[in-house]
Amino acid sequence: MDHATRKDGADEARAQLTAALARVAAEDRAALRDVYDRTSAKLFGICLRISQDRQGAEDILQEVYVSVWKRAGSFDPKRASPITWLATIARNRAIDWKRAQGRRQAEPVETALQLADDRPLAPELLIAEEERRRLADCLEMLETRHEQAIRRAFFDGLTYAELAERMDVPLGTMKSWIRRGLMRLKDCLDNG
């Protein structure tokens, strides 16, 4: 096939596609089918190349022909060839789809983080257990009244005033016991 014959064939195909798009603009469903038959393989290739997803490309292609149905009246053969116009629609739809997929793929990650198991890992549990043992050992080394005051203040949530009343000592004394007990507890934990 020589160059002139190929050019004549391309010109004829372009003219037929342009005429079919004009009929689509007039809401001719058979013309849309003709446009689909003539261009779907090429447009599917564009959608697949951009989306990298066969099912996605099929969905995009469907959206392309919905757009063609709605926008065929805006096609101007003086500005672009029909296949260029169609390829531009396919390309833009595929890019929009790919961007939307990027946003959707980000969401499961966020959801996964929201649903992540916040329980401590085994090493953290071991460290926490070690710290509890050290704290218990250091508490036992304190004078009994200091130990009781600290346990009730920090584990039971009692105030200085409540502790002083329950242990029948002046408020200032209770504050001193807790302060001295905490200093000894800190020294024990730091040096243990």
Throw out a few tags for this protein.
DNA binding, RNA_pol_sigma70_r2, RNA_pol_sigma-70-like, Arc Repressor Mutant, subunit A, single chain, 2 domains, Rna Polymerase Sigma Factor, Chain: A, transcription, 8 helices, mainly alpha, 192 residues, 0% strand
Query: Strand share of the residues?
Result: under 5%
The CATH architecture classification of the largest domain is Orthogonal Bundle
The best one-word shape is rod-shaped
Mean pLDDT over the full residue set: 84
Largest sheet: none
User: Tally the helices: what do you get?
Assistant: 8
Measured distance between first and last alpha carbons:
93 Å
Protein name: RNA polymerase sigma factor
Keywords: DNA-binding, Sigma factor, Transcription, Transcription regulation
Domain RNA polymerase sigma-70 region: 36-104
Organism: Sphingomonas cavernae
What does it look like?
The protein is mainly α and 192 residues long. It has 2 domains: 3-115, Rna Polymerase Sigma Factor, Chain: A (Orthogonal Bundle); 122-191, Winged helix-like DNA-binding domain superfamily/Winged helix DNA-binding domain (Arc Repressor Mutant, subunit A, Orthogonal Bundle). It has helices at 3-25, 29-51, 54-71, 82-115, 122-141, 144-155, 160-167, 171-191. Helix 1 (3-25) crosses helix 2, helix 6 (144-155) packs across helix 8 (171-191) and helix 7 crosses helix 8. The longest helix has 34 residues, at 82-115. It is rod-shaped. 17% of the residues are buried. Residues 133-185 form the RNA polymerase sigma factor 70 region 4 type domain. InterPro entries: RNA_pol_sigma-70-like, RNA_pol_sigma-70_dom, RNA_pol_sigma70_ECF_CS, RNA_pol_sigma70_r2, RNA_pol_sigma70_r4_t2, RNA_pol_sigma_r2, RNA_pol_sigma_r3/r4-like, WH-like_DNA-bd_sf. GO terms for molecular function: DNA binding; sigma factor activity.
